[in-house]
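Still learning folds. Look over my entry:

…
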Amino acid sequence: MSRRPTALAAAAALALALACSSPASRLEEANGRRHAGDAKGALAGYKGVLAELGDAPLPADEAAVRWKALKFAGDVSYLELGDYTGAISYYRRIVALYPGGKEAREARVQIGDIYRERFRDPLAAIAQYADVAASDAPEAPRYQLEVARAYLELGNWSQARTEARILREKWPDHALADEAQLLAAQAWSLEKRDDSALSAFQALIDRRPRPELVARALEGQALIHAQAGRFDRALELYAQALPIHPNPDAIRTNIEAVTGRRARARPATLPGDRAAAFR
């Protein structure tokens, strides 16, 4: 009779040992190394978990562990080890293994950010953001705007406006629809299509967006007028933007610069001022 408790204790100890060596527990061990500052050790731990779980279909609990290991491996490679190519490979595995889900969308965003911010490749980023923008996810409008911004970075003014228009038409009541209108106006301005830019900035103002966007639209109009030598109108618009602009110091600098330009542009003497002419 004394042997049975001993056997039960041994079985319990074995079960505990197996549980402690599970992929989930090793994932936590790797996380502990990362929190302790051992990024390389953490990545090695994540790799071990991934090697065991492989790429085949898994039960839900193990699939969740694999996703976390891939995500954390990508994050530590990207953010702590500076291995951007390695990070992309982990994120791409998430896209392949968890297609159409939140996991894949988050991974695509990370891939897009790496291409855009680290590799200076907005075109490659667009491919990732566009996939998220085409989904029915809550964050889709945000990444539609990122697609438009990336085209603006590339100097493709027409496509930037097209992508901005898609956002406004697909999500007309979304807060980012105003951001899209501002971007379209900026694209016209950068293309030196002044009349179209002024109209687009005014269309934004007429939408009554939040004050920051009104200020940026006024600033955009003021810049166009200043570049055309219409200094009084530019100063009037800068004055309207100043109280509500997120960077009032920049507006004050612009006001000083335009005031100086206006002074230099004025003739030294006024027509008919004979006394000044013969001084």
